[in-house]
Amino acid sequence: MRTQLLGLTTAALAVSSLALGLSAPAQAVGGIDGGNISTSGDVPTSVDVAAFGAGDALATWTKPVVGGTKVYAAIATDGVWGSPQAVTAAPVTDAHDAHAVANANGDLAVVWNQTIGGEQKVRGSRYLANGTWDGSTLLSASTDISTVDSIDAGMDAAGRVHVAFDTEHSGADRIQTSVWAKGGTPVVDNFGYHTFDPSLDVNAAGDVLLSYYDNESGEDTIMVTRRNASLGWLGPKPIVWLGDTQNETEAELADDGSGAVMFGGVEAAKTRAIVVRVSPNGTLGNIELVSPTGVGTSYRDLAVSPNGTMQATWTAFEGGNTYVIRAAVAKPGQGFGTAALAEPKTITSQPHVSLVSDGADQVVVHNDADQLTVRHHTNPVLPWDQYDAGATNGAFAADMDRDGNVVAVGVVENGFSSYVEGDFLDIAGPAASITSPGPVVAAPAFGVAWKVTDSLSGVKSTDVMVRTAAWNSGFGPQQVIADNTTTTSQPFAGTFGSTHCFQAQGTDKAGNLGFRSPERCTTVPLDDTALVGTKWKRTTKAGAFNNTATVTKKKGRKLTLTGIQARHLDLILTKATKGGKVKVYWNGTAVKTINLKGTGQVTVPVLDLGSVQTGTLKIKVVSKNGRKVTIDGIVAAK
């Protein structure tokens, strides 16, 4: 999983560092400019970022200092960056290629390459609950490594850090992987000799997908393998492609363990963007030629969202005069659609980061003309749009949280006034929920409350909707009861015997509309007076439901209610010291016997049908004469 890229050279960009201007970017809808998140100093040599919540992110970078280099990190909460901290307290030798890893539980770590005793080693540090970093832990083998390259890293929900990297010793390349559990000692695995250029991704469950090159036979072969928390690495499988390939792959993994690998395969002297899907058991799918025939691609990237939505992106030179970036999406279980023009014109062939959400929100981040550029497509009927983030002429990185919000960081190279720029793009709308009432209310008039939150732009307004069904009918159309409100509650007038199901939906200050909340349903009980029977006594009684009750002391007395449409039935009853017993029937079948001896009002579950069904409820007194039976109401919930 690569979310970081080296910057283009000034010559390649054909602009000078003076073109930066170093001014704040013009704000676009949804953009949040974090500015300089590192403080100024010498030119950072690497940068990376990992999103771990809505507006929450970990950025890391390496930078020369007096006496060597240091690894730094900064943490953003709700889109606001905290002060940078030194991960390595003292200067170290040639720290570079830093990687940020994090999970939704707030576990954070940094991995980097560092020279020790003339040899390069992979080291890592964890963020502690007291707000400090825990030092430096060796994640690679302690001997027989001269150089380290191509580090890739991720973290699972248990806080295990997974790392893959290319080692070289005595002229031979060999991939190593490392698993570093919280509070544990890193476990290092060695792959075969002549393996190189790994790409790794990790999901929350601890599944790991790894792609790499193997040259043991004298020919470069792309290999794919995977592991999980309980099993070791499965046997690697080759991707069969008859032509040449570029020495790069991209492995990406979904929550369910399915994944994909992207690579560049040469066909008729043109490099095509190719994707191979990988099942949770490691089975490789067919070759999918994502880019069109006859069009050469240069930089390629792949993103897989938590639910398995994929976005493949690539740069191409089209029309004989224009560099573009194209993007194709495949929803879970579907093939890739037609490639859209994600970026219609760049000044040269652009390395970029591809990002996609569960809802197919598409993002491409690249560095164009010394500007960190975030191209985004969140509405299928509208064209791609652009957010110009901060000035960036060096390395950059980007990531997307599970809601679809984007964080991007980039290096501004400007001598000893260099720094790391940080930006967010608020794509996801607010999260909404109905917080009250509960499943049953005590009266037709009750309050409805909701909670709507947005960590980045903040909540602008909320809509609240309801659909209603009477006890003997289905639901009617949904109605809006609060339109663009800024409140969090309001009274509602229901009706006896009805079920009311509420939803909320928020809009944030960037104009993003959130998903509707799950429905929360409540039922107003039907009064006992709706029950039909003879020789029962109807009374007015303070404290009873609706201040009425239906009472008898005679064995064999019956109450019925026909035409009920309900999924779940309760009876509201009042117990007595000399209380009697009733047997409850549904469509002629006895389903419950209830003893009313005791004190106080009770709600007794009678029947759970699983789905809405139509029927007749009958209540029959089965106790001897003189025993009191009091019926207060019925809950007929949908």
Protein model, in words:
The chain is mostly beta strands. It is built from one helix and 49 strands. The strands form eleven sheets. Strands 42, 43, 44, 45, 46, 47, 48 and 49 form an eight-stranded antiparallel sheet that branches. Strand 13 and strand 14 form a beta hairpin. The chain is elongated and about 100 Å long. The two termini are 46 Å apart. 49% of the residues are buried.
Poorly predicted runs of 5 or more residues: 8-28
Head-to-tail CA distance between termini: 46 Å
- The overall average pLDDT, rounded, is 93
Content-based structural category? mainly beta
Task: Name the beta content range.
Answer: over 45%
What's the total number of strands?
49
Helix content: under 10%
Topology at a glance:
Blueprint: E1 4-5, H1 10-13, E2 31-36, E3 46-53, E4 56-65, E5 68-77, E6 80-81, E7 85-86, E8 93-102, E9 108-116, E10 119-126, E11 137-138, E12 147-155, E13 161-169, E14 172-180, E15 187-193, E16 195-202, E17 208-214, E18 221-227, E19 237-238, E20 245-253, E21 259-267, E22 270-278, E23 284-289, E24 297-304, E25 310-318, E26 322-330, E27 340-346, E28 352-356, E29 362-367, E30 371-377, E31 385-391, E32 396-400, E33 406-412, E34 419-425, E35 431-436, E36 445-453, E37 459-469, E38 479-485, E39 489-493, E40 499-508, E41 520-523, E42 526-527, E43 537-540, E44 548-552, E45 558-575, E46 581-586, E47 589-595, E48 600-621, E49 629-637
Antiparallel strand pairs: 1-32, 2-34, 3-4, 4-5, 5-6, 5-7, 8-9, 9-10, 10-11, 12-13, 13-14, 14-15, 16-17, 17-18, 18-19, 20-21, 21-22, 22-23, 24-25, 25-26, 26-27, 28-29, 29-30, 30-31, 32-33, 33-34, 35-36, 36-39, 37-38, 37-40, 40-41, 42-49, 43-44, 44-49, 45-48, 45-49, 46-47, 46-48
